[in-house]
Amino acid sequence: MKEINIKEMKFNPFTLIGNEWMLVTAGNERTGCNTMTASWGHLGCLWGSNDPTAVIYLRPSRYTKQFVDATDRFTLCVMDKSFKKSMTYLGTVSGRDENKVEKAGLTPVFEDDTTYFAEAKLVFVCKKLYASELKEDGFLYDSIIEKNYPLRDYHTMYVGKIEKVLVRDDEYLG
Ligand SMILES: Cc1cc2nc3c(=O)[nH]c(=O)nc-3n(C[C@H](O)[C@H](O)[C@H](O)COP(=O)(O)O)c2cc1C
To answer: Which domain range does residue 119 map to?
Structure first.
């Protein structure tokens, strides 16, 4: 993997997150790691000097959330098409019940006190800046709650500063 400048990237964040999905991973060599599939999130600029940031949303039940909460960083990995079935698996089964990383044939790379996967084609290494559960009284339309939170298990929103972008080839370079 090689590190690139985020400003030189070319990609569509809507199809990247919404269609290709990403793996949210946290933990380190000492704590172990866990990963899950995510298709909700944002990439953009916030705070600092329009710092590059990623926002992810994790429900309280996710085992991955424990790793994100316990450490300072998380990573977002984009995988190529051949991993689509594995990503469905990683987004359906919990790491509490199975060794998902091993079963999906992923190779953890422990770096910067976090974890990404050697098989990824694109990795964002993010430092947590903000974490807060979405509040019921913040929703302006009850229909959003009824549709997405029948159990009132509101996501925690995490804003991470993108510290590093790693790519396997030139696909994301303009
Ligand atoms: C395509 C897809 C997208 C998902 N997006 C999210 C998401 O953005 N946030 C979330 O909390 N769960 C999301 N999930 C569900 C988790 O990936 C799933 O519950 C997973 O099994 C959690 O694993 P864990 O308990 O090992 O963390 C998604 C699942 C799939 C299949």
So the answer is: 2-167
